[in-house]
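Hello again, I could really use a second opinion on something today. I've dropped the whole record in just underneath, so have a look.
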Amino acid sequence: MYSGAIALGLTCETYQHEEARLSKCTMKHLYKTSTVTSALLLSVAFTPVGQAQIVPDATLPNNYIVTPNSNVVKIEGGTTAGSNLFHSFSEFSVPTGSEAFFNNATSIDNILTRVTGGNISNIDGLIRANGSANLFLLNPSGIIFGPNARLDIGGSFFGSSANSLLFEDGSFYSATAPQSQPLLTISVPVGLQLGPNPGNIVNSSTEGLNANRGQTLALVGKDITYEGGASVAPEGRVELTAASSGTISISSKNGQLTLETQPTVGKMGNIELRNDAFIDVSGEGAGTVQLQGDRVSLQSGSRIYRNTEGAKNGGGVEIYRATEVEINKESPNYITEIEANVEEGASDRGGTITITGERVLPTLPRYSGAIGPGQIYGR
C-alpha cells in the first residue's frame, strides 16, 4: 500500500491522493480477477504557472516573431528547411485561458519545437497550428498539461522530454546542446533520443489532449501520468512510452505516425492513469492504443476504449515491456476497465488486447463478457 500527495501547481492547491490498496484487478468485459503482486509508486510535481512565457533563445538563423493580441500569442517566422519549420525557445508555457498560435504556412509538414531553458513547460491553454502539419514539442525538463490544455492541429502531436529529435539523414535537433546544432535538415524525423534523466509528462486535461481523426497523439518521457486527463483520437493512435534513456524510432504505419514497438532503451519508466482518466480511439474503424512502460497502471475509474462502430478494420490495445500491470479500484463515477467492443450494427472484428512482459499476470486472462470475436494475448 502507499499514499501520496499531489500538489496541483496550476491552482496552487493541494489534494491528498487516496490510499491505494493492491488487491485484485478487474478488466471489465475481458477477464476475471487476477492478483497483481507489486505496488506502483509514482510522484508527480506540478509547477505553478505565472505569466505567459514564450521566449526565443536566439540559436536559429531565423527566430520567431511574436504578435500578442489579447490572450493569443501568434508565433510566426522560425527557420524553414524544405517542409520542416524549426522553432527554438528558452521558455514555452501557455497559462490558463491563453493560446499559442503557430501561424505556419500550409505547405509545412512538420513544426519542430524545442525548449532549451531548463524549466518545465506548463500548458493550460490552447496550442494551435495551421493546415495538416505535425507538431513536435521537446522539453527535456518535462511537460505538464493542465486541466484546460487543448490541441487544435491538423496533423499528429508528439510531446516528449527527449533531448533530441533524430532525422533520416543522420542529423539531429538537440534541446540540450542548441549551440552545437548542425545544419537544419529537410529530412523527415525518424526518432527521439532520450537523455540520462528525462523529465516526466503529465496530462491533467479534462478538456482533452486530443488528435484529429486518423492522427497520432504520442507522449514520451521518463514517467507518464494521466491525472484525470483525457485523450481522444478517433480511428487514430494514442501512444505512451515511458523510458529513462535510449532511442525510440518514429515511423509511418498505414499512413499514421507511430512510435517503435519495444524499443531498445534503458530502464523503462511507469505509466499511470488515475482519477477517471481515459483514452478513446473508437470510430468506424477503431484505432490503436499502445502503452510501453515497466509498470502500467489503471486506477480509480480510468478507462481505455477501442470500440468499432462501423465496417473498417481497426487496431487494438497493446501493452508492451510491462513487468506489472494493475487494473484496480473503481471510482464513484466509473469502473476501471479496458474495453474493445464491436458496437451493434458494426461489421468489423473485435479488438485485440495484447499484453507482453516478463511477469504481467499470474494466469492468462479469461473473458468475462461478450466483446465479439476479438482476442486477448498475455505473455
